[in-house]
TrEMBL record:
Alphabetized UniProt keyword annotations: Lipid metabolism
Protein name per Swiss-Prot or TrEMBL: Delta(3)-Delta(2)-enoyl-CoA isomerase
Species this chain originates from: Rhynchospora breviuscula
PANTHER family, alphabetized: ENOYL-COA HYDRATASE-RELATED, ENOYL-COA HYDRATASE_ISOMERASE FAMILY PROTEIN
Pfam family, one: ECH_1
Family per similarity comment: Belongs to the enoyl-CoA hydratase/isomerase family.
Amino acid sequence: MCTLEKRGRVLILTLTGSGEHRLGPDLISSLRSALATARSDPSAAALVTAGEGRFFSNGLDLAWAKNSSEGLSTLVRLVKPLIADLISLPMPTVAAVTGHAAAAGMMIAVAHDYVYMRGDRGVLYMSELDIGLPFPDYFMDLMQAKITDPRTLRDVTLRAKKITGTEAKERGIVDKVCQSASEVVAEAVKMAEELAGRNWDKGVYASIRMSVYPKLCKSLEIPEESDEAVTKHFASRL
């Protein structure tokens, strides 16, 4: 499923195995458990997420949905709090896109603060148009929050364009392109270590991140921080 490794103050969350890392109930639960552990670790200060094999994640587990009485809507519902976990996580996050990231897999990647991607293979791809599925509202809100160029957003959503690492960098979707899976993980960890070294207040970091994306947070049903809670936090820092 996944592993969570700690290197100093950086946590490395890895989707394990050589498969497609399709997001079914078990993997989603495993990822959320790992993120809960990260959230509760007082000494952790940054998170890197990577995948083993050819895929970062190939999206929802459509085979599970087809063979289950619960269907695709259950997976759409289960991924929503996973995205919310990432958006509200009280530390900087870096996605090391080590292979193909499609549909919900791409959503997991861009939900991170920084996205590093390998340039020798792998694409970002929202496949919904090609397979005849509409976007969940929170998918669209996440894409609108993270893909700010309207032509790129059009190509991703209304053209189902497969975007390589180099093109994703040019279009502003990813921050850095590396030449191999091992290099992208190493560079993502290096970035995470730099961010962890800033020693920012974790609660403040999460609060500011969520304030940057108010529409997305509302769509994800992340509880708003009350004015009273903000005031108490500032008072405690004085």
